Amino acid sequence: MKTHRLVNRFKAAFLMMMIAMSTLLSNTASAKETPCETPPPVKEQTIMLALLLDTSNSMDGLIDQAKSQLWKIVNELAAAKCSDGTRPNIKISLYEYGNNRLSEETGYIRQVSALTTDLDVISEKLFSLTTSGGDEYCGHVIQTSLSQLAWSASEADLKMIFIAGNEPFNQGGVSFHKACGIARDKDVVVNTIFCGDFNEGLRTEWKNGADITGGTYMSIEQNTKTVYVPTPFDEKIEAMNDRLNDTYVYYGKSGVAKKDLQSAQDRNAQSYGQSNKVERAVSKSSHAYQNSSWDLVDAMKENEKAVTEAADSDLPKQMQGMNAQQRKDYVAKKSAERKKIQEEIQSLNVKRQEYIAANTPKESMESTLDGALIKAIKVRAKTKNMVWK
What pTM was computed for the model? Predict the structure, then answer.
């Protein structure tokens, strides 16, 4: 009897052990079969660029290149794609340094524009720059831009400083080691552009400044004039630019001034020739050119109520007196016109770019400001899963 009880107890214990093992194996298998949760995709990405330009006496050529190449740079940025196929937002800031017309207390540094999506403002401010002798403090202007600008905290965003000049990188009371260290901690990449001989830039610490953040050191010849390649498509695109301007419907207290600013920047671009004006027209046909603060077509995409809530007196004469539905219909018509024109410009620009690529020597593409910026941006953008196709 005693032996029989022991056998029964053993059987019960063995059965319980088998059930426990079966449950454990089942849970383990289930855990293996259940896929790990993948992090949600980044909602949107932004490219943030701060351009720090030396405006001392010897930098007329650099400023001239910046003015004549702004829209080429914007067009390259606008061609970037995120991993999900969307386009990144683009924000640009502008600083000048080394100009003796600026305050000595600030280190001869001035924020010309904060980070903004308003490309007409960047163009306006850029064309207002003039040169004058002064002391160039690279560490100081880098540190100032890091503290003043609203840099994103998102690791998905591409944040870059481009500083261009021709004096030793270690001048001034703010150590470039300290300033670039702050940039590294903020995930901001400092790229340095020495205006002059490559080896002289090495000797005067420009490469060391870039190395701290993993940025790119480059040298350019600042007095080289921008070379434009006229194409068979330029006249058509230029004509479309005028039609594109007609689709902008201003509103708000600053609407008229902003519409005038748009035309003024067309003229500034034209001052460097037809090809440069065409570059601007291409920019205006891209997602990078956004004017929701004063244009109802762009504003309607963000807030449909903007069309009906705009004060009648702040609208173009042809819209004054319209009821809500008439306003919506008018803006919708302008929106459709704009989309069609932009698509036509983009289509022509594909052929235009192919023509330019086939007729531009490679060395001339990398020896100027735009070539240096674009090359460095594309290299770093890969780390943020941005591509150019």
Answer: 0.87
